[in-house]
Specification:
It contains 3 helices and 2 strands, in the order H-E-H-H-E. The chain is mostly helical.
Amino acid sequence: MSPQELTSLISAVFIVGMIWLRTRMHYAQRSRGRLQLSSAGRIYFVVVLLVLAAGWLAAPPLAHAAWPATPVSPTLARVVCFLATYYLFIAVHRMIQAQGVSVFKAAEE
């Protein structure tokens, strides 16, 4: 694995962590106990991983197509795509919350 790919991988893992923490904070305020993923939450995070994987593959060619005269590094294109994914999933979480669907639920003890 090249250093550029390692940087992209670390960025992707960081984005998953940021999405996890940001989403979880919305539910920690409502309940005092442990939280666990709901079934909708599992789907939510699988979709996050799929979007990140698609971004990993599609970002470099899309960046080259958008700016053909400018050499854009694949790492930069991927990191920008990962950041866009983070902001996209803020909106996705708000939409599913508005429909009454929870990503996290209180753990049953």
